[in-house]
From TrEMBL:
Record's GO cellular component terms: plasma membrane
Keywords per UniProt: Membrane, Signal, Transmembrane, Transmembrane helix
Residue stretches spanning the membrane: 418-443
InterPro entries: PKAT
Organism for this UniProt entry: Atta cephalotes
Keyword Membrane set for record: yes
Signal peptide: 1-22
UniProt-recorded name of the protein: PKD/REJ-like domain-containing protein
Gene from which this protein is expressed: 105622414
């Protein structure tokens, strides 16, 4: 018996220890806040040590709202469960509430043991929940910047539960649009199209959605230019109101209950879309612009006011590059890039070897942000000859331009300069010519002089020289020979040397 008690306590102790060290938890989430009268959905995900456990569970939900809702699920092996609950307008009030979930699992196929629990807060709001979505060129814009060259479509993106509620319950839904607290008309499809054409300007867009639950009736209203008390209580759907000259003044596409002149203006009259001078105070709409007096909302209607700040920028265009893109290796590439558009800009440079075709989906790891003017330099050294491509990526929140720039790095083959060849050849030719002329001149000069050997015939008698001594005759012969104009030396020696 003691052995049995020992093992029982051992098993219980091990089980308690495992429960302590095991990380069992449930993660709660919801799609709230929810408008009064709408439905909210809660989600629970069960984990053990970060993994999905394989157990059989039951989920016990409860909240602390006025009606104290409670729900217990059936046995299930699913580790993900949902609970959707509706909060009617008649029995609930707006505020913050809490939902708590308790999870139990089946052990030994008999006992339901506590597994884990969690709680989460949620809000029941008096007005519709959502935001203003911006689209340009059929593309949703995540931020608040729009292009000045494209048409802008503004759409009310309602929370799914709120949208389903008013679409099922409301008999009329209208959206009133305001830009910088000026009324621009109404629509019944939660959408409005406008062109923001002034770069550098910030606009404040407001939209008021009014859902009415009054039953529609068919009543026509005669056009009039003077507002006076009338007994009209409703306006039929698809009613077109025109003035005396046939110009369209308003288009009514959904039935709306009218209880007074103010409600008449508020619910049925749509001013021409190009009129922007009517102040919201003159049309008596609640929740529009913080600097105007508010009108108490009708408790029989559901309202939703949505606000969006829009900043307008001119897209990036006319990218130009100044500088040479033909350089030698180790020479510095120096280019200057300019473009047009609204700043600030962000730029990114990508370097690719060879020719590169841009796809338009390129991203950068390093981006130079906050360039207030689109004017910057590109300085780079290329060590290897070849063809390179520099991708210039410019962005200013509303557009992205990718500009591929081809860079040619050429290697020059070293050749002798022309002077190195011309000068030696010219000098050689001149030297040869001088030598030829010198030799010719020398030969010609030698040909002009003929030297004859003096022939002295001292044995022949000459009457004129008999009386002269040998010395005198020799002197006379030399004198005759070297006389001016004479080109020959004629020396004759006559007679005997003894004379």
């Amino acid at each position: 018996m003691q052995t049995i008690h020992f093992y029982c306590h051992l098993i219980w102790g091990v089980w308690c220890f495992l429960q302590v060290i095991a990380k069992d938890y449930v993660q709660l989430s919801h799609d709230g806040p929810v408008v009064l009268g709408g439905t909210i959905t809660f989600r629970a995900d069960v984990y053990r040590d970060g993994k999905r456990p394989k157990e059989t569970f039951i989920y016990i939900w409860n909240d602390n709202s006025l009606m104290k809702h409670k729900y217990e699920s059936k046995e299930t092996s699913n580790t993900t469960t949902f609970w959707s609950i509706n909060y009617p307008r008649e029995s609930n009030i707006p505020g913050n509430y809490t939902v708590e979930l308790e999870v139990k699992y089946l052990t030994y196929s008999i006992f339901w043991v506590f597994y884990t629990s969690a709680r989460i807060e949620f809000e029941i709001s008096e007005s519709l929940n959502g935001n203003v979505a911006i689209k340009q060129v059929n593309k949703t814009i995540a931020g608040e910047y729009v292009s000045s060259t494209n048409e802008t479509k503004l759409t009310i993106d309602l929370r799914k539960g709120d949208y389903n509620f008013i679409m099922q319950k409301a008999t009329a839904i209208l959206t009133y649009w305001f830009i910088d607290c000026k009324y621009y008309g109404q629509t019944n499809d939660f959408a409005f199209v406008y062109n923001f054409t002034s770069p550098g300007i910030t606009y404040e867009v407001g939209a008021l959605v009014i859902a009415s639950y009054d039953p529609p009736t068919t009543t026509t209203m005669a056009p009039t230019t003077t507002i006076a008390p009338v007994n009209v209580t409703t306006v039929a759907s698809n009613t077109t109101i025109t003035n005396s000259n046939g110009t369209l003044v308003a288009v009514i596409t959904l039935p709306i209950t009218i209880t007074s002149v103010k409600h008449l203006m508020k619910s049925t009259i749509a001013l021409p879309i190009n009129i922007s001078t009517i102040e919201p105070a003159n049309i008596s709409l609640p929740y529009i612009c913080s600097n105007t007096s508010l009108i108490p909302p009708d408790p029989k209607k559901t309202y939703g006011y949505f606000y969006k700040k829009i900043r307008v920028r001119a897209p990036v265009s006319n990218i130009s590059v100044e500088g040479t893109n033909w350089i030698q290796p180790w020479d510095m590439l120096s280019l200057n890039v300019t473009c047009k558009g609204s700043g600030p800009f962000s730029k990114c440079l990508q370097f690719h070897r060879g020719k590169y075709n841009a796809t338009g989906n390129e991203t950068c790891d390093y981006v130079d942000l906050n360039l207030h003017s689109c004017n910057f330099s590109i300085i780079h050294y290329f060590l290897e000859p070849g063809v390179y491509t520099i991708l210039i990526i410019l962005n200013n929140e509303v557009s992205t331009q990718i500009y591929p720039l081809t860079i040619n790095i050429y290697k020059v083959t070293t050749k002798p300069q022309l002077s190195v060849i011309v000068v030696p050849v010219s000098c050689s030719v001149v030297a040869v010519v001088l030598i030829v002329f010198g030799v010719a001149y020398y030969i010609q000069s030698r040909a002009r002089f003929t030297i004859e050997v003096a022939d002295f015939d001292f044995g022949q008698s000459n009457p004129e020289m008999e009386y002269k001594t040998f010395t005198e005759r020799l002197r006379d012969s030399f004198n005759n020979t070297v006389r001016p104009g004479s080109k020959q030396l004629n020396v004759r020696y006559y007679g005997s040397m003894n004379h």
